[in-house]
Amino acid sequence: MTSMTLKNSLAGLVAAICLAGCGALPDKPARAALYDFGPGLAAPAAPPASAAGSAPRALPMIALAEVDANSRLDGTQLLYRLGYADSNELRPYGQSRWSQPPAQLLRQRLREGLSAGHTVLGPEESATIARTEGRLPDSLRVTLEEFSQYFESPERSVGLVRVSATLTRSQPGGDRVLAQRSFTARKPAPTADGPGGVKALAAASDAVVAELVAWVDQAR
């Protein structure tokens, strides 16, 4: 075998090895899809005027605390339960995640809903008013207890959201509980997969927010 033939053979062998090595490389991991609750609620209505030509009535203030959640809901995983198999086990989707923890997404939605009829304050704003004006607004605390796609069968599922809420009023002798209640909403998923669960959970969250806002107005 001539030196030229040997060089060509070695070059071909090296190329074949390189091609085989490239073919053995794993595919690039698929990027998880990120979801939130969508663009938001309708713009709040303008507060009514107390009389024709007068300035709009000031909205009552309410302090909205951070929404609490148990450790299972601290992350951004999209969770589901197989009610027909083992409803006690929470399972995560592999390629579907929330853009923020569900408690934060729910608080954003709740703030939007409350702002139609209230001036909504965060913890720091509420503390500032207490320091400068010597008064505290009523406070709403919400705990997210369940937030999952619940499969009743392999083909049928719902978005399940459950929260507990406590409305308190600060008084010289301490906080007084004005009202306390739990809220649960179930909305059907259009498809039996992660994207369907996202739509169902967003709809169930909006239903819970609507009930919460109406309840706050009645309780005060």
TrEMBL record:
Instruction: Extract the signal peptide range.
Output: 1-20
Q: Which UniProt keywords apply?
A: Lipoprotein, Signal
Residue ranges annotated as coiled coil are none
SUPFAM superfamilies xrefs: XCC0632-like
Question: Domain ABC-type transport auxiliary lipoprotein component, which positions?
Answer: 45-212
Pfam families, sorted: ABC_trans_aux
Query: Per its record, how is this protein called by name?
Result: ABC-type transport auxiliary lipoprotein family protein
Q: What organism is the protein native to?
A: Variovorax ginsengisoli
